[in-house]
Amino acid sequence: MMNDYLALCMLPQMERLPSDSKSLEDDFQRYLVHHLGRFQGCNPYFLYEAISLTIRDRVMSNWRDTWVRHTKKGTRRGYYLSLEFLIGRSLGNHLLNLDILNETDKAMHSYALRLEELLDQEHDAGLGNGGLGRLAACFMDSCATLQLPVLGYGIRYEYGMFRQHIENGEQIESPDHWLRDGNPWELERPEYTQRIHFGGRTEHFIDNQGIGRGRWVGTEDVLAIPYDVPISGYQNDTVNTLRLWKATATDEFNLEEFNAGSYTESVAAKNSAEHITMVLYPNDSSENGKELRLRQQYFLASASLQDIIARWDQVEGSDYSNFAAQNVFQLNDTHPSVAVAELMRILLDEKRMEWDEAWDITSKTMAYTNHTLLPEALEKWPVSIFEKLMPRILEIIYEINARFLHDVSFHWPADVERQQRMSIIEEGEQKLVRMAYLAIVGSFSVNGVAAIHSELLKQGLFHDFYEMWPEKFNNKTNGVTPRRWMAHANPEMSRLISENIGTDWIADLSKIEMLKSFTTKKHRKFQKAWYIAKQLNKQRLAELVMQECGVQFDINAMFDVQVKRIHEYKRQLLNVLHVIHLYNRIKRGDTESWTNRCILIGGKAAPGYYMAKLIIKLVNAVADVVNNDPDVGDKLKLVFFPNYRVSSMEIIAPGADLSEQTSTAGKEASGTGNMKFMMNGAVTIGTYDGANIEILEAVGDDNFFLFGLKEDEIEDLRQHYHPQTYIDSDSDLQAVLQLLECGHFSDCSVGCFDPIIQSLKNRNDPWMTLADFRSYVDTQEKVSIAYQNRERWINMSIMNCASSGFFSTDRTMEEYNRDIWKLETSRD
Ligand code: 26Q
Predict the structure, then answer these.
(1) Strand stretches in 614-753, DSSP E
(2) Cα separation, 32 vs 642, whole angstroms
(3) Active-site pick, 564, 597, 604, 635
(4) What is the DSSP secondary structure assignment for residue 412, as one 8-state letter?
């Protein structure tokens, strides 16, 4: 049988479809009427679907050509393994990348349709929690734009990130059945189905070469079906692939049950296979130890590795001597790190390699990215769960650990404590597998996601490993894609920028630096135009706020924005305390040279995170009082923006004046929202944490409002932290806490916010919020004063955008490629 990859390569180049508005019009009509069986005047979702299918056709030939190019013998490829890809919407992104926005707009006009309304019909692909998942999506975008042969592997969750409603000020979750109306951006590929093992037991035997081997038997298998999503590059004819796996049952019946007459039970049991990819776990900063989550992780790792191995076998045959030279896996946090053991299993048990050869391949192909320092987020799985779900994998992990600890004892003879500290297995009442250690031991590269974060990993969390393998450790500061986050989300400013410095910045954001020269006196016209663009973006945001929250934002006020997952370490509470402080000032008439502010806070709380949910309730309670007090008027508005997601950020970031980045120093690994705001010309008020530090360095301290304790100061203070001393010495803070305590905002029930007050006053408050209150409030006052000088503020805004060149994921991907992946771009 002819190898189908080679056969594919031999097909003639596909004919390109024309993309003039007339052709688009015709195809749109054909899809709507002849394919979907609908006509104009139908539900607008079908119109979205018809235009998406029309555009998808234009993506196809480039997709095929790119796949063929990458599958050729001898092309080194990278694989991004991630439990999350927070893609958001696709149609607008492809229109930009294919450079057919105008023609499509024209085509829709001819049917009296507004393209913007159709774009708005698309469901967000919410296959991620927050930063880590969105980062994966930005990485995919940049890899396609840089023409890097990188394939994303993830899970096709039937239900993505939950939808958030607010009822009586509280978060209510509802399931996000994003696939209900179908998804024009996926292509089912049953021909690449893989079989995944679970359960069973291991057997040991000596093979005919005399080598001791293990084998995994008696397993209950599930099938993994791939769904491919096209990832187009920016105007470069490249389309990479994101391959998402769905779990289904095998067609095998449990024969015993079947013969015993329980036919329906035996068929129904197969249902459980499908549960694996049913829902995204909505935790973003603490592991929850659920068995199904570990199933998801192994399912992704096994399906993806088997897929890659199958392709290798087809193209390269049974010779694996080049495998490590041709393949590299990037593990997005520890979530897919069981891949280390799974690759060993495949090479040992299925490819019949000896341990050293298999380990050489594995440890030369795996690379691990860490995204958090919070101890509660570090994954540790009970050995007992491993034993039950994948006994063969556990055996391999034990063997990896035994050999690793042997190396440790060679490095540090007789240092038993160190061996215990570094062991992949944590001993104790319940033995645990430390996934981060498995990832470090199995990888040739370990990186953090911002300079400070990578330093803290070396000094703290992974210090022992750094001492053993300093050469493995490196930093890769995060970024965001300027295509989605500027060119697509902010057409007003993008047009203005391109008129003045050309369009090169979209594919090479370092060029955006040219805007710096537009802050001088002779460019008043540009500055005026910048201001107008910002005002238009604020108008768009104000309309959304009215629609979602029923509150009027005045676009002449400062738009002060904090959107991100709700977590104590991110300290949305600091923001709320400041709002209460401003409210107090208004009430006592302390409003001389006042700056009006519209404050927007948004984000989801993990459903089981009590304090985060209470913080949402507090924001709503304070908003209720502030927005309805006639003394306050336009001076101050506060809203909690519901169901914050990728598509809302596309409107929020361009409309922001002030970006709130208030995490306790040392706790936010990087942050990426901070970069989206900066790029869109918002000024940051932030702590010395994560990528804020690099943003500050890029933009200069004249254009950044820094506040709060630094990481080392936080850690020094921790031992003798007395929140009460801050209260005693600060009458503003006293007034704020008094108002909170007396139940002014607790129409729910008196004392309902007591847990928040208690946590702020607790000497063991890990986030030390009150220690930064004074500095925050004083800095906010500087922000208010700066905002009153319109010219100054406009220039700060321009400087922030102009200094954002470093924060493009194009730069991030170039660094991953230079230091870790070493792939050739198709342009080389
Ligand atoms: C783990 C086990 C079980 C269930 C859930 C999880 C889980 C899921 C998601 C743990 C953590 C996450 C997400 C973490 C995350 O988003 N981290 C953020 O990553 C960004 C990209 O690097 C950084 O910018 C942020 O600073 C970091 O908080």
Answers:
(1) 636-641, 658-661, 683-686, 705-706
(2) 33
(3) 564
(4) S
Residue 672 annotated in active site: yes
Q: Using an 8 Å Cβ cutoff, are 560 and 654 in contact? A: no
Between strands 366-369 and 380-382, the pairing is unpaired
Q: Which atom of ligand 1 is nearest to the CA of 288?
A: 3
Residue whose entry in the numeric block shows the structure tokens 């053993």: 468
Between the alpha carbon of residue 36 and those of residues 39, 42, 82, 178, 617, the distances in Å are 9, 11, 34, 19, 44
Strand partners, 772: none
Ligand 1 centroid vs 647 CA: distance in angstroms?
20
- Minimum CA distance residue for ligand 1 atom 19: 132
Q: Is the CB of residue 241 less than 8 Å from the CB of residue 67?
A: yes
Q: β-strand 220-232 against 187-188: which pairing, if any?
A: antiparallel
2 falls in which pLDDT band (50, 70, 90)?
very low
Proportion of the chain in helix, strand, coil states, percent, rounded to 5: 55, 15, 30
Q: Is 371 marked active-site? A: yes
Identify the active-site residue in 56, 345, 371, 458: 371
Counting atoms of ligand 1 from 1, which one is nearest the CA of 128? 9
Active-site choice (362, 672, 684, 779): 672
Report the C-alpha gap between 757 and 724 in whole angstroms: 12
Q: Average the pLDDT over 242-258 and give the result.
A: 82
The 10s digit of each residue's pLDDT in 348-379 is 999 999 999 999 999 999 999 999 999 888 99
CA 589 to chain centre: 44
Quote the pLDDT of residue 519.
98
Closest CA to 581 of 400, 414, 747, 784: 784
**Does the beta carbon of 478 sit less than 6 angstroms from any atom of ligand 1?**
yes
Catalytic annotation present for 311: no
Q: What is the per-residue pLDDT across 534-553, written as a single tens digit (0 to 9) for each?
A: 999 999 999 999 999 999 99
Task: Decide: 291 and 276 in contact? Cβ < 8 Å.
Answer: no
Q: Does any ligand 1 atom lie closer than 6 A to the CB of residue 694?
A: no
Q: Beta strand 220-232 with 239-249: parallel, antiparallel or unpaired?
A: antiparallel
Active site residue 570: yes
| 774 CA from centroid of ligand 1 (Å) | 30
Dist CA 69 CA 82 (whole Å): 24
Q: Which tokens in the block code for residue 758?
A: 């208690």
- Ligand 1 atom 4, closest CA: 287
Q: Tokens 């004249």 label which residue?
A: 702
Q: Please indicate whether residue 669, judged by its CB atom, sits closer than 6 Å to ligand 1.
A: yes
Residue in the structure block whose two tokens are 């096209």: 230
Atom of ligand 1 nearest to the CA of 478: 22
pLDDT in tens, 650-694: 999 999 999 999 999 999 999 999 999 999 999 999 999 999 999
Q: What is the C-alpha separation between 378 and 546, in angstroms, rounded?
A: 40
Identity of the residue numbered 484: R
| 786 Cβ contact list (under 8 Å, min separation 6) | 683, 705, 792, 793, 796
Residue nearest to atom 12 of ligand 1 (CA): 284
Q: Note if the pTM is more than 0.90.
A: yes
Distance CA 815, CA 819 (A): 6
pLDDT at position 267? 73
Across the range 321-334, mean pLDDT stands at: 98
Residue with tokens 């990728």: 646
Is 130's C-beta closer than 6 angstroms to any atom of ligand 1? yes
The answer to whether the beta carbons of residues 396 and 353 sit under 8 Å apart is no
